[in-house]
Amino acid sequence: MKPEWSCLKDVTIIDASQLLPGPHACSLLRQLGADVIKVEQPGSGDSIRQLGPAAYAQFNRGKQSIALDLKTDAGREAFLELARNADAVVEGFRPGVMKRLGLDYAALAAVNPAIVLCSVSGFGQTGPYASHAGHDLNYLALAGYWATPVQVHDKVSRPRVRVSDYAASGYAALSLAVAIMSARQHGRGQHLDVSIHDAILSWTAHGAWAARGHEAAPQESPTVMPENDLFETRDGRHLAMGILENKFWVNLGEALGEKFPALRDPRYATRAGRYGHKLAVNDLLAAMFRTRDLAEWEAFFGPLDIPFSPVLGAGELFEDAHVRARGVVRRPAGEDGIAVNFPVGFSLGLPEGDDFVAGLGKGTAR
């Protein structure tokens, strides 16, 4: 059931995209009240189906599914008929594909002047990289994700989630909501050019700009914080220490200074002082945290006002008291997997979650 206040309650979006960015953007808008019709290639469907039902459900729960071969006249005509009564189309092909299919913005606007076309591509519709192949790691590399040093003992390692894809999906969803509202006010749609590379560049650019002056000596960068890092514990686990404000360093020294007197070294009393001795401070903390198991550190830091967190494993995460209390993750009845609710609380409520996952071309499959 959709709340009466929801401005997306009568919005229809055609999702012709695959994998993560486009489908996730449509999923976010579905959670905010929109109806989403998933258009897939007959036989194979969205490529993410090859990774299993849970992977497909992650980004396509609650969507209808229609199988259309867009390379045929019949498929194209059926797609245009859907677009005639829709608010937006989301596609994730390389630039030029929609035009070759006869389904570009001009073709869609001819049957529905208020339609919004959102094209999500790796490098955007223009520019020298527009036709290049790419996935998340490629966009991160080219957007300077690893250009900003952040650790005393820094290293390049891949992120654990598809950061650039999620950045793009968030911008796509926000832009779609704005463009749809504008089209409803003025009767004129538009073409949204969402570049995954642009999206992550908007996150990395400031840090990379500042890092230009520290490429020869990365540790000197202000983004390298010796007391704001991940540390290994005696049992091979890890913890996160998020000290940024000086008051937290003072609290750490008060709590552990008797046993580890170097924490009270006057040279480290200020942030500037610690920055002047980054290696020594980082090595001090690393040695200190290796003296106890993670559970012991959890018990010790529990009552203290210090930004400490254990690095949770996959099994621990879903049993965490705060995760359970907030209710972002839920277990749909009869499924082995999970569903993730919209991660923002609305005081007037959001639509109840649609847990069905449509089979390829099976409509709503409720």
UniProtKB/TrEMBL annotation:
* UniProt keyword annotations, A-Z: Transferase
Q: Does the keyword Transferase apply?
A: yes
Per the record, the domain of life is Bacteria
* Molecular function terms, GO-annotated: transferase activity
Entry-linked InterPro entries: CoA-transferase_III, CoA-Trfase_fam_III, CoA-Trfase_III_dom3_sf, CoA-Trfase_III_dom_1_sf
Specify one Pfam family.
CoA_transf_3
Q: What is this protein called?
A: Carnitine dehydratase
